Amino acid sequence: MMASTGTGTQRRKWHFPGAGHPRILQAARYALCGLCGFSLSAASLLGSWQSLSLGLLCVCRKGAAAAVAAGGALGYLTFWGRGALQPVCCLMLGLMVALTLGSRPLYRQAMLLIPSLAALIVSACGVFFQLYQGDTTPVSVYFLRLLGAFGSACLFLRASERRSPVTGWLVGFLAVLALSGIRLFGVLELGYVAAGYIAVTGEFPAVILAGLGLDAAGITALPMTAVLCAGYVFRLFPRGAERTRYFGGFCAFLLFSALRGSREYLPAFWLLLGSGIGGFSPVLQAVPRRSGRSGGLQVQLETAAGVLERSGAVLARMKSPPPDEQAILEDAARMACTGCPCRKGCAVREQPLPVELLHRENVTSDAINCRKPVRMAAEVHRARQRYRQLLAQKQSQEGCRQALYQQYHFLSEYLQRLSDSFLEMPGRPVRYQPEVALCTAGKKEVSGDTGTWFGGSGNRYYLLLSDGMGTGLPAAAESRKAVRYLKELLQAGFPGEYAMKSLNSFCALQGNAGIVTADLLQLELDTGRAVLYKWGAAPSYLVRSGEARRLEGAATPLGLSVLGPIGGEISLQLRSGDCVVLVSDGAGADPVKNLPSGIWKEPAGEIAAGILSARPEDAGDDATALVLRLRSFLRPAHRSAGSQ
Question: Is the pLDDT of residue 231 over 80?
């Protein structure tokens, strides 16, 4: 039996006590979702409510969707009074859709399904209220509501999948539009505050969209787009006078008010307040922008990502033609008639065979209209075999084409994420210290299982266990190759989901279907969030307070399928003291069942050794246990990687 251990940490920074507790984080997320739903419900165009909250609701899942629905319903009741019945009904229908379909892969994979459902809900409610409730809302307003539901769902879906400057600008536009309908204490107009913040932290397109948001809300007669653009000029002053940019919106508003003879001066102070928040806050001030060489590299990466995505789309649209059934039967009839003594003067020879013969399980001579039915039945049987071979070949080609498309798609997504990383905010401080141990046992010198752990980009940490088919050196070679492939992708910054799917399609292209399984745990050391990807592997376990929870994935081994739903993914929220156990199938059916409860307080190496010591003595397969214990950060150290 062999064992190795390793730990990993990063330098500690200050944080609030208890802020990383899973329940506190979850409550904060739900509260933020409810606040967003409440704020979006205040959006108004042409003096009527809009369906922006519904667009956000349809993108969220389960608890977050319920929080958005609750916040949006409260907001509509607060801001629209008696007119809130219809938008609240839209939110309830959207919540039903999100709770019913939110966990299904198709709901996320179909690009326009979510926005279309949001628009369908708005249109259905509109028709119902016009027919049965006597609603007299103009068609133009309904068109804006449909456009708002569809567009906001597209935008929020895009923002949740990929961060880009354009999505950030558009989200800022919606934020200004929504907050323009909220006035605190009857005086403080939040729309101006949000616009002032964007005016000093956002790029020029974001400033324009913020001004358009104020103009669309119609809260002032001044052209706020022109005001904010004029205030942007203050940001172009030399660096020595950089503090003057905070007064750009303030001065521009006063100037336009004087030119138009308006005495509306209070919004200028709200713009100044937003500028101060954006300029003097140390957290909000660090807004990244494209500039210099990094901006050029970002454009190149985005261009390359677009080329790969279009190339993959062309490859995915290519379809192999189906086998020509009539031609196959004609060849069979020609072979049967060649050398037949009755071929001369045969009236049946000129009649084509029915294509249904290729789809029957058994073809007897009675089903064939021929003077020599036995000979013809034999040729039809060979034609059926050839037809099945052609179908299998076509399916194999479709699988290979799909695998190649997936590789193009994953590379495109990776380049886009790499481009977006130029705009990422600084990472949060590390809060957790992983303690990792691996033990393996087998009847041969070389184990067919391979396990490793290593740090990734940012605060990510990975545990990886692969089980090769069989035992000994051949199985070890396959599992090590799979681990090496995944490790290189993950350390390069590839997302865990795409790395696993890329390995799956790679195995399918090589014809190595089902020879390895894989367990990948992706852990964020700053939040404790983790995702476990399981591909045909034995069940894993999450142990908390001495109680083990079984984690199973429904995925097949790598390479068996590239079509349809593939991959098993389990989301976890870990906290200090939790243990995650990854085992290969040689460790037994339930390797943690009979372990003493006190062992979970021991170091990770003792836990791994205890799991393998309880395995059946007559086990013929290699057994490996890879154990992660998560602890709160205690002292500064450098992360390390290890493997077996």
Answer: yes
